Protein: Sulfotransferase 3, isoform B
Amino acid sequence: MNRVQVTPRSYPTNLIDKDWGNRKLFYTKDSENFLRLVHDMKLRDDDVWIVTLPKCGTTWMQELLWLLLNNCDFEGALAKDQELRTPFLEFGYSVFHDPNRSFGPIEDLKSPRLIKSHLSLALLPSKLWEGKNKVIYVSRNPLDSYVSRYYHGVSFGFNYGKSLHQYFDEVLASDDFPTEFIEHAHEFYQLRNEPWVFYTSFEMMKKDLRGVINDVSRFLNKPINDQQMEKLLKHLSFAEMKKNPTTNHLWELAQVQHENAGKEMHPFVRRGDVNGYKDELKPEQIEKANVRIQEVLAKNGVTLDELLLLKDQ
Ligand code: A3P
Structure:
């Protein structure tokens, strides 16, 4: 991968007291200008952000957030690709290497804007660190996320021709597995009690979607009635989202210029399980990965159950 270590212009030292100088951050080579523009990005007071690592349930939560911010306009949601209703900050730049392709669609959006990013806290706009905008974070078991990333990569071309086991051996061979994953989530976990942060997990959404919907609606100050709740539960169900063309990232797929994009397709809303990795990865891969995960968790002083909200808080 064409990723290099990057140093942001400043760090969120007001939010988390840690040795930021030792926080290794990576991004695509030659992206200093884009990252500087993100760092200095102007925000509107009512912008809402969804921040996650890839394949952690972003689309699922994003659909809920968009609906809550738009008076449960189900017709509107079904009429337009999700990526056009709520843009992914890094997408346009990563495909076209042109920052305007990232910022343009966001600037053109009517308020309240819902913006998606996979950037870690230190690479996000520094304005966010002031705590005036609402941020929703969704974590997930790293192994489920990596398995999901593999299938996404096959559909989008960059993992085409590679087996899941080959892909995961490469993940295991990389130096930063799983440091970036754990630190990305842990930083937001540490902010979970801030009034501007709503921290949840894919696992919580699977366990109690109704509860998460209630909590998010309170967090955004967007009350819903019983009928809207029932409609939300249906619209957000795995079966409905799987067959919904606007939530399967077909628009993004059409933009991607990889020569192998679309040659072998896996649905974006694919399996939707907790711990599905257990029957997809080899036992020895799982064992190796878990040793590394436990090491990094211990260094950060947090457990996986805590990051996934599976332990009483
Ligand atoms: P799997 O590939 O494990 O099935 P993201 O949107 O962050 O890329 O996350 C994609 C993952 O969320 C995929 O995981 C997808 O199936 C799952 N997902 C999306 N909508 C879902 C839903 N309504 N219920 C359960 N899982 C869902």
Q: What stands out?
A: DSSP finds 16 helices and six strands in the chain. The two ends are 37 Å apart (CA to CA). The first strand starts at residue 3 and ends at 6. Residues 3-308 form a domain with the Rossmann fold fold (CATH 3.40.50.300).
